[in-house]
Amino acid sequence: MRSKVIMSSGDIKRTLARIAHEIIERHRTLEQVVLVGMYTRGVPLAHRLANNMEEFGSPHVPVGALDIRPYRDDLSYLDEKPTVQRTDIPVSIEGKSLVLVDDVLYTGRSIRAAMDALIDLGRPWAIQLAVLVDRGHRELPIRADYVGKNVPSARHEEIKVRLTEIDGIDEVAIIEKVATGVS
């Protein structure tokens, strides 16, 4: 496999600052805004966005964590059933403007599952989507409201987001999986 870093730690930091500014600009007030990170890497990204927003002088924005695994449409195809993590949203989502946060937007199926999970928790006023990377190849009619970086990619490539909180390093890499022929 070949790997190429396409976003450094500094790139990620600048991108999250820009997205935080965009969220602030699109909302008259942040009193009804809740950031909801999708496990695994969407959760620390949501916390970083909230911290950026506070650094820019905005009031505290609640941050929640969402586990979408019970809502995935591919569970019957998986050999191993995923373990469920705890969904933790510290406030009611009724009538709130939610910003769903994820690392990579690909087919849109994870986002569909996340919306199903959120609707089961209540009826938000709106759901927006913020992603660090949009790599294309949508299978569902879903688009992000806030995009850090558009990365055209081939289906055989993988976009790997690594974050300090989980992986010990901040970077985004594109990994080309090289087919190995066995003679």
Would you mind describing this structure in some detail?
The protein is of the alpha/beta class and 183 residues long. The protein has helices at 9-26, 42-55, 109-121, 164-167; strands spanning 2-7, 33-38, 63-66, 97-105, 126-134, 146-150, 157-162, 171-176. It has one domain: Rossmann fold. Helices cover 27% and strands 28% of the residues. It has a five-stranded parallel sheet with strand order 3-2-4-5-6. The chain has a three-stranded antiparallel sheet with strand order 1-8-7. Helix 2 links the parallel strand 2 and strand 3. The protein starts with a strand and ends in a 7-residue tail after the last strand.
- Helix/strand-derived class? alpha/beta
| Name given to the CATH architecture | 3-Layer(aba) Sandwich
Mean pLDDT across the residues is 92
Morphology: globular
Number of strands: 8
